[in-house]
Specification:
36% of the residues lie in helices and 25% in strands. The chain has 194 residues and is α+β, with helices and mostly antiparallel strands. Strands 1, 2, 3, 4, 5, 6 and 7 form a seven-stranded antiparallel beta sheet that branches.
């Protein structure tokens, strides 16, 4: 019984200790400063192709593949847990431990933006942004009634449904700088190998 109580306390403390970064006031600020590198204009097409291949190698599914504007985005991918040591997306043990205890997922955005105003541009900035989001599920409060408690623990209160509150949502909590740097390096390595 004590070990079960200790496990519940550990899960609660881990979930509460992870708060959104101060810079994450909204989604736009969450992706304001990606890991960047400079790419010559003649490697624009090869860089996008290398980024596409690296993202697919990491298990991501492309959501947006906009060659004209130099943007690749992925669909959310559930973060690897401690039991999934073969997956390359967790670059630190603390993120793997956190993903084991709470639902986390990542989305990645790769951009190639012109660095110069010349037409055509001479260099592009390769940016990689990895955003971690946590599943939030507002739970119904217990009202002292023991009748069908377990059936209603995950039910959404009627007044919340009337106000349009969803039973669960994904909240951006932080950026994964280690994954951003690793993906950037893998893209550059693949680009050099071409």
């Amino acid at each position: 019984m004590r070990s079960l109580l200790a496990l519940a306390l550990l899960i609660t403390l881990t979930a509460c200790s992870t708060t959104p970064d101060a810079a994450l006031g909204d989604a736009a600020s969450a992706v304001s400063s990606p890991a960047t590198s400079t790419i010559p204009a003649e490697q624009y097409h090869d860089a996008l192709d290398a980024a596409r291949r690296v993202l697919l190698d990491f298990g991501y599914t492309l959501d947006r593949d906009d060659h004209r504007f130099g943007v690749l985005t992925t669909r959310p991918l559930a973060a690897a847990t401690l039991a999934e040591v073969w997956r390359p997306d967790n670059r630190t043990a603390d993120l793997a431990a956190e993903a084991t205890l709470v639902d986390l997922r990542r989305t990645v955005r790769v951009t190639l933006l012109p660095l110069t105003r010349s037409n055509p541009p001479t260099h592009f900035a390769l940016g990689v942004e990895a955003l971690i989001a946590r599943r939030q599920a507002p739970l119904r409060y217990l009202n002292g009634s023991a009748r069908s408690v377990f059936a209603t623990l995950n039910a959404l209160p009627d007044e919340w449904q009337a106000r349009g509150i969803e039973p669960e949502y994904w909240q951006p909590v932080k950026r994964d700088a280690a994954l951003e740097a690793h993906l950037t390096q893998r893209i550059l390595d693949r680009l050099d190998a071409q």
